[in-house]
Design a protein that fits this description.
This protein has 108 residues and is mainly β. The protein contains no helices and eleven strands. The chain starts with a strand and ends with a strand. The model has no long low-confidence stretch (mean pLDDT 96).
């Protein structure tokens, strides 16, 4: 089972930027980010495969950038122009495993 550890969350103001990181214990073909806001279902944010192909939710496309580094075991999510509605716990996922999540709070 892949072990995943997220970091980089925090409290920011609307319009600010933030970068999330996820360290994986092994390389997997796909890695992705999901988020869960209070009282809502967990939703897809972005994903990237080992070839660099990416996919984004419509709500974040153009503002968020997903990337991988360190031999494909580190996953990043660069978030820009953050909005209040981006407030959520952000989870990293790979090969059916999930990280513990990192809280992102955007003040209006």
């Amino acid at each position: 089972q892949v072990q995943l550890v997220e970091s980089g969350g925090g409290l920011v103001q609307a319009g600010d930027s933030l970068r999330l990181s996820c360290e994986a214990s092994q390389v997997t073909f796909n890695m992705g980010w999901y988020r869960q806001a209070p009282g809502k279902e967990r939703e897809f944010v972005a994903r990237i495969d080992v070839n660099g192909n990416t996919d984004y939710a419509d709500s974040v496309r153009g503002r968020f950038t997903v990337s991988r580094a360190n031999g494909q075991t580190t996953l990043y999510l660069q978030m820009s122009s953050l909005k209040f509605e981006d407030t959520a716990i952000y989870f990293c996922t790979a090969a059916g495993s999930w990280g513990q999540g990192t809280q992102v709070t955007v003040s209006a």
